[in-house]
Amino acid sequence: MSTPKEEEFYVRLKEELTNTSLWPTEYLYKFIIPSDAEKMAQIENIFDNRDAQINVKESSKGKFSSISIKLKLKNPDEVIHFYKEVGKIEGVISL
């Protein structure tokens, strides 16, 4: 369940995406996660079957991983859907 602050963020994000992008469009997600194969697999499963381009870079000390995911989406609601799904994974930072 989302907090009121999170819901407010998503309302603003949807408005901004609606006003600044032509849909459908390619969208780029960026996440930081603790280097953990299970968390990485959870994120990959969320974007599975979506023809997503996923790039992973480990931090210099190997404690964290940066994940970039690019895929074509139909509308701002799809963008928000994926942010909410990834947000369910503990320790993930959305950029």
UniProtKB/TrEMBL annotation:
This is DUF493 domain-containing protein. Gene3D superfamilies: 3.30.70.260.
